[in-house]
């Protein structure tokens, strides 16, 4: 399967979008450079870097996880974290009410990556204004005003969707039965579809995530995840907002080992890379 179809799954019309990938043109999608300015990066976590490097044929952001690093507020700090709004045209589309989006990127963990218990990976986020930010880390307040769909790796590279969504019975019932394994954590995000795919080390793979917002107070929202072009999680019937001012805002582009306790820490100094950063509003 071609890279562009892994980043922009077949079957959708793309109204407007952006990509840092070098691939064939997709109607509605424009090429942008991998830079903070071009991708409207904000709220960068201090004390860590996301340097641009060349790695196995791709221009990528580099995430460094020092031995002993876990939780972005603990020392030593590892990975990186920021919010990514995408291109100006894409931002204009979602501010104007586009409620159906796809985000994607390629990722490579260094050869022989030691996974330990797991870590966070980028995904889409949104909500009402500034309440959309920090919809993570065990947040319990204003949960109906935000949503966050980061991904995670777990032991041995097992993948999952790590969801912060409004705490409704409909959401709990639907997400709790997503195969192969889903765990609803009352204090942190919900682990959804754990084991639906497995990350390798030493090679580039591509993940894509589709978010369709619900109508206010209706359970008709959707989230879908593709791994290397194959749909591995597809959930429908979610309640993601109770107000039309709750919108998709971009990607929560964050990665670190953890967990919030030292037993999650990276066992050695190691690295991962992120490339082909893309997003689009779809119909």
TrEMBL record:
InterPro entries: Polysacc_lyase_14. Residues 55-277 form the Polysaccharide lyase domain. Gene3D superfamilies: 2.60.120.200. It holds the Pfam family Polysacc_lyase_14. This is Polysaccharide lyase 14 domain-containing protein. It comes from Rickenella mellea.
């Amino acid at each position: 399967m071609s890279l562009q179809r892994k980043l922009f799954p077949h079957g959708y019309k793309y109204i407007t979008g952006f990509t840092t990938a070098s691939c064939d043109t997709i109607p509605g999608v424009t090429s942008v450079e991998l830079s903070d300015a071009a991708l409207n990066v904000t709220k960068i976590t201090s004390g860590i870097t996301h340097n641009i490097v060349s790695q196995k044929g791709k221009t990528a952001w580099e995430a460094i996880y020092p031995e002993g690093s876990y939780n972005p507020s603990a020392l030593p700090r590892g990975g990186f974290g920021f919010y990514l709004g995408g291109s100006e045209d894409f931002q204009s589309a979602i501010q104007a009410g586009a409620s159906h989006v796809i985000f994607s990127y390629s990722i490579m963990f260094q050869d022989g990556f030691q996974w330990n218990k797991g870590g966070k990976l980028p995904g889409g986020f949104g909500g009402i204004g500034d309440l959309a930010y920090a919809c993570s880390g065990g947040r319990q307040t204003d949960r109906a005003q935000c949503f966050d769909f980061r991904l995670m790796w777990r032991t041995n590279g097992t993948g999952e969707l790590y969801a912060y969504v409004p705490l409704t019975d409909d959401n709990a019932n639907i997400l709790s039965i997503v195969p192969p394994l889903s765990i609803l954590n009352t204090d942190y995000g919900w682990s959804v579809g754990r084991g639906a795919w497995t990350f390798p080390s030493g090679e580039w793979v591509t993940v894509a995530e589709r978010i369709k917002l619900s109508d206010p107070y209706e359970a008709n929202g959707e989230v879908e995840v593709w791994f290397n072009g194959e749909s591995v999680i597809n959930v429908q019937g979610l309640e993601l907002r109770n107000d039309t001012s709750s919108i998709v805002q971009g990607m929560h582009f964050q990665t670190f080992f953890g967990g919030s306790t030292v037993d999650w820490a990276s066992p050695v100094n190691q690295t991962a890379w992120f490339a082909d950063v893309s997003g689009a509003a779809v119909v």
